[in-house]
Amino acid sequence: MVMQRIHVLDEQIANLIAAGEVIERPASVVKELLENALDAGGTHVDIRIEQGGLQRISIKDNGAGMHPDDCALAFQRHATSKIRSGRDLFRILTLGFRGEALPSIASVAKVECISCADDSAKGTVVRIHGGTMQPVDTVAAQRGTTLDVRELFYNTPARLKYMKTVQTEFGQIADVVQRIALARPDVAITLYHDDHLVLRTSGRNDVREVIAAIYGKDVAKQLLALSFEHADVKITGFVSKPVVTRSNRHAVTWMVNGRYIRSTLLNQALLDGFHTLLPLHRYPIAAINLEMDPQLVDVNVHPAKWDVRFSKEAMIRETVSEAVKRALGNYVYIPDVDMPTSKPVFHEPSNVPFNAGVTKSTFSTPSYAQPVKTIDPGQVSMTQWGKILGVNATDNSSTFAFKERAELLATPENVERVEHEAQQTSAKLPSLQPVGQAHGTYIIAQDQESIYLIDQHAAHERINYEKFYQKFTRNDVSTQPLLVPYPFELAADESAWFQTILQQLDSIGLRIEPFGMNSFVLREHPEWFPVEKIVELARELLDWIVQQRKTFHLGRFRDAAAKMCACKASVRANERVSIAEMQSLLHQLQACDQPYTCPHGRPIIVRFSSYDLEKMFKRVM
To answer: What is the CATH class of 334-463+576-621?
Structure first.
């Protein structure tokens, strides 16, 4: 092969290459032109799309407009009014700044630009077809700029071939416009597709109002305001309540200094904030803006400026997570059963009774339900507890081992502690009376106004999770040696990394030693581990560690390990429990910091209001 000589590319070819980097599809054009309109100070922006943007994209703003000489200059490569020196790259406050968008667009479409910089009603018109500029002319125009892009990719048929359907391309456009509208609620934006109005925002600087325009009023009503300040960042916006979720992250919008961005780091921080409140593979609706010194964020890492790089990533993640936690912290989530006759109600901590203002009923204990016994904890021995629980200390076939049941209920100190904690935290859950069990899985309970179903495994798992998590965070860790050490092997690259964290694992009671080439052995574990399932638990913990090796963090490991331990130690579905055990479970659930979801985000408790029941049985119409 003969090496070709180096030469400088033709300007038009260079523009086509730049267009491939910046202009991926019609949505890319809309993004660049809309950001230019906002940078020009436009307070009203009108966007009109035809045939998914492939036929026409027209964006009109009432911003500052351009000087006649600048209209033509704006279509030259690297021409910009937003950067004067290299220092400006580290303090970027505008949305656009590279000076590549307009020439890139003009190289693959037929473009007309009309701009007027004053109130003279005389504007400058520039027409460019496939990168070739026509003579500049003067036309009647209002103050502002209108950019009309027609027949996108008409001269690059290979690019045109890879465009999706009209509906798909317009969906991408609508997504970009919606997210920019969330970032700039102070600007009135209208979006039309083939003369049909798709989106209109008022420009009244109300983010919730923009969210209502995009996702609907019902969603907007279920949002929690978020406001938090750190030394280096101010965080504002909205997140949905945990019961309002989506199957993907599409409804999560991030802004940094008013710029819409994409960020894996921020997505993870959001999930950290929700922690155990979200079910697996469910995501909230969120629109969150971070205000910070532009020197702390680099927006110049992606040609289309989608991605950014933070100089203090750990601080940003922790701050966003804390902001979300605080927004969620003041709410109680006991959803009503989703029925045609009932709308979900979410109760905030207050003295307001459940279902205030509607018909009330008092439920009596059914004749088939065993009444809860009144016990003086100080007078009850372990043997008596066994009788109360209905289980023999030597009965290994019981659904609960006696030791587990004793820990759940039996010791007088435990009962006193549970009752005291339940009294202190009664605002989180109502005081519930268990009346029975359904299908060996759901505890049926009641208060004076409602009936509740409680998932016994989810409830016990939450109790155990919080207990195990506290144990994991203690400084003094008591360990227990394995009767038979547990050996395991790793790949060579995994083994080298694993040895670097052995000391961290040792600090929380996992004593692991190298045992030959790429082999290790687990010798000791915290004494409170569920011993009967230690091998299964050890394998799961080690798998988690290896999977997370690129982002391993001891704090996140504690959380994951507490969840695994809780799952192994909790009562299962289809296991019979006594009324006394149900009562204890509910008392302990009341004492939990977050008694509404299991550690994996599944709901623990649902509610049938008296009104729901009366509607079902036609007592009220």
So the answer is: alpha beta
